[in-house]
Amino acid sequence: xxxxxxxxxxxxxxxxxxxxxxxxxxxxxxxxxxxxxxxxxxxxxxxxxxxxxxxxxxxxxxxxxxxxxxxxxxxxxxxxxxxxxxxxxxxxxxxxxxxxxxxxxxxxxxxxxxxxxxxxxxxxxxxxxxxxxxxxxxxxxxxxxxx
Length: 147
Known about the structure:
About 85% of the residues lie in helices and about 0% in strands. It is built from five helices and no strands. By secondary structure, it is an all-alpha fold.
């Protein structure tokens, strides 16, 4: 996936998490629906077989949940700084550092799960995975334009 698309997706999730509290039921439901729609899109676009479906679903959801947790933690830090009466320069620096490190940490999670995907996806499916991610992002961006 392009760096821009990764940043955009991170921004969408971070902003949605920043506007909702970590226990906000509506936000959690929205994330769950988005994750399910993304999973179905990937299964269809990668032509996941019946034999692969259970393992792919489990691995995909584990990775997405780990990414969501990471993004929620960064958003929580942003909220803490935003809501603090007098944030210090150190507070701002820590929050900024976490935001800048977000893409790197997302990449590390994706690489971890790439190793798992390699055990059951075909080489072609592995190759196509990033293209499908890009198509998903394009679809999400287009749907946001329509609103």
